Amino acid sequence: MLKPSAFSYILPPNLIANQSVSPRDHSRLLTLNRQNGAIGHCRFFDLPTLLSSNDVLVLNQSKVFPARLLGCKSTGGKVEILLLHQIGSNTWSAIASPRPNVGLKLLFGQNLEGCVTQSLSSTGEITIDFNQSSAEIFTTLDLIGLTPVPPYIHSTLPEPELRRNYQTVYAKEVGSAAAPTAGLHFTDHLLDTLRDRGVTIEYLTLHVGLGTFKPLNPNNFSTSSLHSEIYQIDSQVAARLNKAKSSGKRIIAVGTTTARTLESAVDSRGVLYNLSSATDLFIYPPYRFKFIDSLITNFHLPQSSLLVLVTAFSCFPNTPHKYRRFEDTIIYNAYQQAIRQNYRFFSFGDACWIY
Fold first, then answer.
1. Threshold 0.85, pTM exceeds
2. What DSSP line would sit under 269-282, residue for residue?
3. What's the CA gap between 286 and 170, in Å, rounded?
4. Is the pLDDT assigned to residue 129 strictly greater than 80?
5. Domain made up of 68-146: CATH architecture
């Protein structure tokens, strides 16, 4: 059985990007031919010259909300919570540091209060009932919430600028506790240029949870499952994507969240049908991809589900390369080249196009 430790590599800390480049589309783009392993180097703004009217880009339009809250416990002492997803009108799942006991009241700014109704040591998650309903709490979060950037990012940007940087230009549906970061490279101008080129652009929604950053454990491989995330594909979008796929167009997923959504929604015939659900799909070798043909993504953390997904995409039965060990894969080789070329890694880092 595969083990999380197998998917490792050594990254110099100075290659972890703490903020995005400006303009966004000036990030670097490593291109990887997954059939023969050929690697190229260009800039993200070169994308229109690489794509054509035979291509369909699918983007995740989920919007990050300021999910990080700083407050204090009613018994005294500071507390930091990170809202994961909404369970009811005023009930949320969250993680906290330190993890509070059931019954404890938490106090925040703007008269926001919460009572802990569940605290699970097994997952570290807590459930909080707030004194504000859905619409009220999002207004409050806009005022006092902080951008939930990953812990490996040490940004010195002021909150308003960080909030803008950690959001795609096409974000629409509020609900993510982490950005679908492959989309951070797009600008409005680049999207217009791609459309002018004849590239089709479609949108879906998968709300990203913090589970995307969790290190894998052996149980993920034994159960073939991950953390659960909610997704939605509009029926008209699905119909257009099914038509494009059946007509031989290339479906390019922008980000692993988009890839996971499409692969969760497709049936054994390769047709999108389950358009609104929660997915716990864990993609690892030798998974056969049923819908996507190409993937634009960032460079991912060692021992992460995202690194395993891109490895599976580049291995048999999707390519001629059978998986034996990670160090022998074309993904590992691409990452080593990226390190030698001083690419920027992780959420604010450079991009990789696997085709």
1. yes
2. TS-B---EEEEEE-
3. 33
4. yes
5. Beta Barrel (2.40)
